Amino acid sequence: MLLVNGSLTYDLVAILVTVLAGLVVYYKWAFTYWKKRGLEYLEPSIPFGNCASLFKAKYNFGEQFAEFYKQFREKNLRHGGVFMFARPFYIPVDPAIMKDIMQKDFQHFVDRGFYVNEEIDPLSGHLFSLEGNKWKNLRAKLTATFTSGKMKMMFETMSRCAEELDNYVNEASKRKETIDIKETLARFTTDIISSCAFGLESNCLKNPDTKFRYYGKRTFQNTTWENLKNLIQFMTPMYLLNLVKFKTTKQDVEDYMLNLVKKTVDYREKNNVYRKDFLHLLLQLKNKGKITDDETFLDNNNKSKEVALTINELAAQVFVFFAAGYETSSTAMTFTLYELCLNQKIQDKMREEIKTVLAKHNNKISYEALMEMTYMEQALNETLRKYPPVPFLNRKCTKAYDVAGTNLHLDEGTMVVLPILGLQHDPEYYPDPSKYDPDRFSEENKNSRPPFTWMPFGEGPRICIGLRFGMLQAKVGLATLLENYKVTLSQKTKTPLEMDCKTFITTTKEGIWLDFTRLN
Fold first, then answer.
1. Structure pTM?
2. Is residue 464 a known part of a binding site?
3. Which of 210, 308, 352, 407 could bond to 289 as cystine, CB 3.0-4.6 Å?
């Protein structure tokens, strides 16, 4: 019996050693990828490649790629290679190469390379992640939803939510309560998105415990396992993810969002409800296959022959509008107010502009008034430089490509990451990059920098389709608060700010507490 057990143990050890040896051989072979192509790369190690800091939670994704950028810049390189596990990633450093990838030679880099499987993960089939012709066709249809005319259409909703924000802050100010502005503005943008995307009054400012707010937070707040899944998704080839039927959307979030969209759509169509919101525009795509200026729905017997959205495709677009719209805008406002607390002269200058412009518009915040607030635009742009909501951009090489001015050939399928956080903190383009200075974005200073050195929304054909909406709701919130309150930093806020390592977006680990003093 002992001999049998001993033999079995020996066999298991032998198998394990063989597997480990095979993995080591595979890794060593994989790590020769960039050397064979003549590209300088950072020395990787088994098993994490160059991304051990991500697993140790030393960096978040943006900080990790910013570190790669810094190391290549210190070597005066235009680009370089890294490995995430055994998978090679190409890192452009020169803005000229980035411009070619994002715009000039876009046809070689059409896809982002994010996992999409609409069959088992229906909410993954949204514009941000879709590929090829499906992305191209949907982008063309959805572009009409974000014109200046459509923004004006939704402005009434934003304005109403801004009044609720003012009321909330005013009550806290009367009680001399410190406000967690990160949480407050997340509720504010959730109220806007719930109304503009779903036609629902979520009232998160008054009731932070609503289901809508809960699932909004769930979208971005990850458990350790969910964070690991994000890493696996990012570093694993698409065919393997499809093979194991990988799912990116949290099941409880998917169930809630699909049910909410289906119930809302069903109610609107049965009762012929019309609202000036994003869902109405998507319903036109569902029923007509296109967006028109006709403010009535076609009934089921008169649908256009054009290809229309399915209910799941519609739900996916509503989901990404919600996910991308509430968190990015709220963090942009949060970081702006934080910086204005540290730079009171800039805060005073912004307030003076707000009051001067509003005096020409009957002292009422309107779409037209916000468009005239150029210094506010500069301040938001500077916030987006220092704290880009999406701190890196990725593309997949969809057609073999020779990098201009180099000897590098990129094979089809190669993953490309543009380190936006690193780029926008490069002292060559932004001297003293840790300093907050809205004047960097005066017309004169903008024109003095190379193009493609500021890309918080991306660039080229895949630039963020909702950037106008995001900027508009940020301006509404900032104008409302700065017109009426002096904002100062509370002692409850821990400085320097610590960034969250468990999310793809730029956000703080803890709240940012501010004090608001009512003016006049």
1. 0.92
2. yes
3. 308
